[in-house]
Design brief:
With 286 residues, the protein is of the alpha/beta class. Helices cover 42% and strands 18% of the residues. Helix 2 links the parallel strand 2 and strand 3. The relative contact order is 0.15.
């Protein structure tokens, strides 16, 4: 376990969604250490929502998790979008920008996150694009291990090897998505703990945890539209045991319940963080 690493945000996080913004403004959230939004949903937003967003960013640490960078796309990198995100980060004092290790455009938006072929050629291509984004922003970004339902044609590497090769070549950070590891482990029949332990601790910037939908016994879909299940909580527990405690954010994008219910799941994150922080402190005191 890494007991010394410092993170750019801390504690348990919660995604800020417009469906719950009014209720969140009226609810004390001492357990929330940081918040996250998709910048594409907020750039250029004015009026009441713009003022409410400013109110949140003035009081909370924020990170951005993008939706449309499409880092693996055959289409040219949208450098104007990157510059807009960089300016928006400075405007609101946002700590970090992360994106999905996937693609969602090819001569138009595809409205889904699709897997990149696990090949050496793709590693080089994607890493070059990530490095360009980092050059524009003047900081490292975090790439998220993505859920997928069928390997891209032509794949010649294992998923874990592809992710590690991209992170290493681009010298970028990792947004470790605990639910995506679990979803992929069911859909592609591998050991989620072994996969998780194969990721580089030193590159973790923060984590996501979320719910999903059971399509069948051997197919689950990453929806962010349900409560986190026990198996995913157990995997987060194992991740803290292996890596040490890292910042972890609850994602909920659909079927959003009352804020009180969301905060119960944030409390669950805090519970596991306190558990492992306490054990590390005891170990250091011996």
């Amino acid at each position: 376990m890494d007991t010394k690493k410092e993170y750019i945000v801390n504690g348990a996080g919660l995604g800020l969604r417009r469906d719950s913004i009014k209720e969140l403004l009226q609810t004390p959230t001492p357990q929330v250490g940081f918040m996250e939004v998709a910048p594409e949903n907020w750039i250029g937003v004015g009026g009441v929502y713009g003022k409410q967003f400013r109110e949140f960013t003035e009081k909370n640490d924020f990170v951005f998790h993008g939706l449309s960078l499409s880092i693996g796309s055959p289409s040219p990198l949208d450098e104007e979008l990157v510059r807009q995100i960089g300016a928006f980060m400075k405007q609101h004092g946002v700590k970090k920008y992360t994106e999905h290790l996937s693609y969602c455009s090819d001569n138009g938006h595809l409205y889904d996150l699709l897997p990149i072929p696990f090949t050496e050629e793709a590693v080089n291509y994607v890493a070059e694009r990530i490095m360009r984004v980092q050059d524009i922003l003047g900081q490292r970004i975090g790439m998220e291990n993505a859920s997928y339902y069928t390997p891209a044609p032509g794949s010649e590497m294992q998923e874990i090897d592809f992710i590690n090769a991209v992170l290493d070549k681009a010298d970028c950070e990792l947004l470790i998505d605990i639910n995506n590891i679990y979803v992929n482990s069911i859909n592609h029949r591998y050991d989620p703990i072994e996969f998780m332990q194969g990721l580089p601790a030193e590159r973790i910037v923060y984590a996501h945890i979320a719910g999903h939908y059971y399509e069948a016994d051997d197919l689950i879909v990453d929806t962010h539209g349900a409560d986190v299940i026990e198996n995913v909580w157990d995997l987060l527990d194992e991740a803290y045991k292996h890596f040490g405690v890292f910042p972890t954010l609850l994602e909920r994008d659909f079927n959003i319940p009352p804020v009180a219910d969301l905060l119960k799941e944030v409390d669950q994150i805090v519970h596991y963080q306190n558990k492992w922080s306490g054990q590390m402190e005891q170990a250091q005191a011996r």
